[in-house]
Amino acid sequence: MNRKILETYKEIAARTGLSFDEESSAIYGTLQGYSVFLYASNTQYPFFFQLKVAAHRANPLGKDEQKNFKSTNKQLQSIDYNNNIVTVTLKNAAPKKVVEITETAILESLTFISQHGFTPCCQACGKECTPDAVSIQGNYMLLCDECYTSLQQNTQLATEQQKQKKENIVGGIVGALLGSLLGAVSIILLSQLGYVAAISGLIMAICTLKGYEMLGGKITKKGIVFALIIMLGMTYAADRLDWAIVVARELEEDLFLSYQAIPALLNMEIIPASNYYGSLVMVYLFVILGAFSTVRQALMTSSHTPRTYRFKDGAYASSTYTSDSYTSGAELD
What pLDDT is attached to residue 329? Predict the structure, then answer.
């Protein structure tokens, strides 16, 4: 994360009396008796915050209440209440004013929540309490001790079961073949519409790898190699079939015979080699680009399981940050 953005997050935490978790870039803690999370839901917009508050009341928020809430502060975009969580969306703030604006928006949101009958609770079971901020495999939650312990045990069990699951190579290959067929269809359809699109390569990569994972139980480096081979072979077949469709339409011939005739048509230069191979190279380029990002994500997922922990653990929290140690938001560009 950009250093200035990081310092701004720490400043917001210090100004509000909350804590900052550098691992997740989330601001959390207890304020006005409520357990809260503040974080940017999209890293591309680091100052477009959502505030999550664990609270309960018997009836949902009415439209008039939501309208009145937005009128209290022009920085407040919306408020929603569902499953013991009040979600407040703040408008994207300018860097130079984000600290002051966000602090005010948080305090006014909590005042509104308190005045409209919400009581602090665990978001999972609804028990009235001041829950802890936790991460359940990368999901931010506000839970009581019992719910956290239960979810922690369940996620550990699921992780162990996933690790012990054996890779079914035969099933994975079948899944990759089925997935690659969907990718081939996308290549042909887009080409027939007049496009050689990058999205077709991404679809081919995702469908092939996901197909392998679904029927193979899991995907390893060995599975990725099999999937890549299938992906490249199916891409070649899809591009050739695309040309066969054109030939069959133009010459009014059978599609199967047109497919078989492609090499002969190339030799006779009825199909210009530059057009045929240029198209094939372009499709392969898109598939390789799509495969690179997809394989990278698959390897990262297989090698790294998001941790489950309490945010209040000192090892992960920067709660000692003080107002004397931060860079002023006014210094941001």
Answer: 35
What does the alpha-carbon distance between residue 228 and residue 230 come to, in Å, rounded to a whole number? 5
Q: Is the pTM of this model over 0.70?
A: no
Nearest CA to 12 out of 35, 32, 28, 33 is that of: 28
Q: How far apart are CA 141 and CA 158, in angstroms?
A: 18
Q: Give the helix ranges, DSSP H, for the chain.
A: 3-16, 63-72, 98-115, 145-164, 169-192, 198-216, 221-251, 255-267, 273-303
Across the beta sheet with 132-136, the strand order is: 139-143, 132-136, 308-310
Residue pair 140/52 in contact by the 8 Å Cβ criterion:
yes
The sign one gets for the Cα dihedral 51, 53, 59, 64 is: negative
pLDDT tens-place string over residues 180-224:
999 999 888 888 887 766 688 788 888 998 899 889 888 888 888
**Residue 137 — pLDDT band, cuts 50, 70, 90?**
confident
Secondary structure of residue 122 in the 3-state scheme: coil
